[in-house]
Write a structure and sequence with these properties.
Layout lengths: L9 H79 L1
Length: 89
């Protein structure tokens, strides 16, 4: 009269399926959350790198403007010296 539980019965199979399904869904949600977190961290790192690149580019443009100004001054001085040499010789 003592029989063990039958796993093939409909009620037990449904309970096992629901339990495994819930565990699978929880695992999938955890995996998506972890993946999203690391993707967000990657985007944050890219944003920081781009901000540093923009700052470097702005500094380069400012330095280039200063160099062009200095070059224009030197060109004026060279032209003045050339004119002086033409007048003398």
């Amino acid at each position: 009269m003592t029989h063990g539980p039958v796993l093939a019965s409909g009620a037990n199979a449904t309970a096992i399926t629901i339990s495994v399904g819930i565990i699978f869904i929880i695992g999938a949600v955890i995996a998506v959350v972890v993946w999203s977190y690391f993707r967000l961290q990657s985007h944050r790192a890219d944003a920081v790198a781009m901000a540093e690149y923009r700052k470097l580019a702005e500094e380069a443009v400012a330095n280039q403007h200063e160099l062009r100004t200095e070059l224009a001054k030197l060109t004026e001085h060279v032209q003045a010296v050339e004119q002086l040499m033409r007048d003398v010789g």
